[in-house]
Amino acid sequence: MRSVETGTLLRAAPSRKDWSGSRMGVFLEDIERKTGRHFADYDEAWQWSVDNLEEFWGAVWEHFEIITHSPYETVLRDQKMPGAEWFPGATINYAEHIVRAVGQRRDGVMIKSRSQTTGSSEWTGARLLEEIGRIQQGLIRLGITAGDRVAGYLPNIPQTLAAYLATAALGAIWCSVPPEMGPKSVLDRISQLEPSLILAIDGYRWGRKDLSRADDLARIREQLPETPVVLLPYLDQDCDIPAGAISYADFTSETGEIRFEPVPFSHPLTVLFSSGTTGKPKAIVHSHGGLLLEHFKAMGLHFNMGPADTAFWFTTTGWMVWTLGVSTLLTGAAMVLMDGDPNWPSLDGEWSQWAVAAETEATYLGTGSAYLAACAHAGLTPGKTWDLGRLREIQCSGSPLAADVAAWVMDDVGPGLLLAPTSGGTDICAAFLGGSPLTGVYAGEMSCRPLGVSVESWDPEGRPLHGKAGELVATRPMPSMPVFFWGDEGQERYRESYFGAYEGVWRHGDWLIETERGTWVISGRSDATLNRGGVRLGTAEFYAVLDGLAAVNDSMVLHFEDPAGGMGRLVLLIEAQEGADKTALEASVRRSLRTELSPRHVPDDVVFVPSIPRNPSGKRLEIPLKRVIQGAVMGDVLDPGVLVKPQDVEDTVRIIKEAFAA
To answer: pTM for the complete prediction?
Structure first.
């Protein structure tokens, strides 16, 4: 893996005359013809889109032929945040647009499912539509109507996808939690919604391990005794159906035409949950119209997707990427669903994301930055090992992508790829920053702000910053901003979460730097910033160096403040590669941080731990771990149910405390 400077150009933007080679370019050239405008480059198009929100989003509505059961009165009645009112008067249904696209490919393979539990299966458009209809008939028999909540305790399989769409088509509200979550984590989330139905599996296989969910489901049912449960046999096709539960076969026994309930633009579609790492998870409510428009824009313009594409989003059903990935189908593109351990039997084994992408002939891969870093550090050469000739774009998220890892993708996966590091979140189920077909690829940086997304970096007084870290803010509304938090009477928690720092402006909680190139870098969470003697240090700059060290599998930086106002204690946690010389590695780490960053960045303690606490999206959980080390109760501030490796966290905490006591 070669070393490159942050900001190195890895792939140039296409020339202006070549814009017609992408769907985004065609869209913008159509805008030019209709309005008489001219966009010299992407930045000019972006500026138009945020200066003219109504014109831009109206054009998106028209371009993607939104199906309306009653017309809208205006695009944006009120631009205040929170409370912007989009497309008042319109009645629509998110699921209807997916059924329209899938219906045009009834005989084509639309879902390629790869499961370590049940093997491989492929569903045509007709098969998916049939399953949606069958599930919807089951929902209707149980009395599910618009506004009711349906919870899926399900993995990333076709039935989950079909259940989401069947629920949405009725105007009912979907939420999902992945089966790797234990009963407490599940109940902390779905009990807030008082669901009218739970769909669940009996268990699943993760690598070699068979993991039953029978006892966990029984505990969930004990706490929600009035909620009906449908059980889908998955690990054991012949498992017993618990007393009082409904078998999936009975639930889906009747076919029927898919019915669509027209709902207002702001009607709840799905509830996504925050990580729950710093308290009870927030139940973030997203709307039919908000996700429909944002995802059409993302898939059809920024990701350049169409019926010739096959998109592989590696995700669990609890991550916002799952919800985003379903919208692949809006464009007529096919989807790859994977349920299993991508590191089994090895990082370069048959279940690696690269192997699955090659075997399914994926053209688009959505993955985690942490996964790319792990593959780079392990010396993998996916472009040589597997046939990835159809792969044209990789989007990565969850954490910043180091410059060296970005260069590795271009060198060892595919030199012609569009690499799109992206930053968004569960809060908007979309992107604040990312890539596009019309912008270049720069090592360690995100190339653009998406169309219609007015993001800036601000200082504490609300002044835009350039070249230094400030708060990531959205100064104008987005359609996919949450309509509310479930159970948040008066929207107090909603306002505190996003609008407490700047009146009427969304503060996301990330440190953001705009470079001299007009590209963007996330330098860490603003609530996880290190303050050493009055100097702010962003965690991302540490990780940019540490992620490039071959013997470092993973790392985390924690800072423990000095009440007297001194420098405090800077602690670096390292998960080392197996067999690494830890003494030599520690010396190398200290030297690299001193020379690449500054003496202030050199840690007081280097502690080797079994693993770094991360959630399934790849997010490092610095603040919750710090609070546990400081004496908080584990379950109160750090829910093991949201961790990728929950079995390691107690040892990690013990080792750190022992190091402190030494």
So the answer is: 0.88
